Amino acid sequence: MVPAWTAWKGNVAKAHNHPDEAVRWYRQSLRFGGNPLAILPVIINVEESRGNQDAAKAAYNEYEEAEQRQIRRDVRDRGPLGTGGQ
Fold it and tell me: What is the pLDDT of residue 75?
């Protein structure tokens, strides 16, 4: 519940054009276990929209790392090819 609440607070801050506060809430959501594949694109968007290309690139790099971790988990959980994880 906490990641969803903190992400919601980020959305509210973003809607009120408070990008610093929005990013803080989104980062808090990540620290509480929020889904980086859902949250990091929003952080990238906020940073790009305020012209902070360095922070946007750093968040993009984090996203790529999270994506690779997810792929490795998916492959691991799937098991040997053709077994469906059995």
Answer: 86
Q: Where are the domains of the chain?
A: 2-76
Q: Over the stretch 12-63, which tens digit does the pLDDT of each residue have?
A: 999 999 999 999 999 999 999 999 999 999 999 999 999 999 999 999 999 9
7's tokens: 């992400």
Alpha carbon distance 53, 80 (integer Å): 41
Long-range contacts of 11-18 (CB under 8 A, 24+ apart): 14/42, 14/46
Superfamily grouping for domain 2-76:
Tetratricopeptide repeat domain (1.25.40.10)
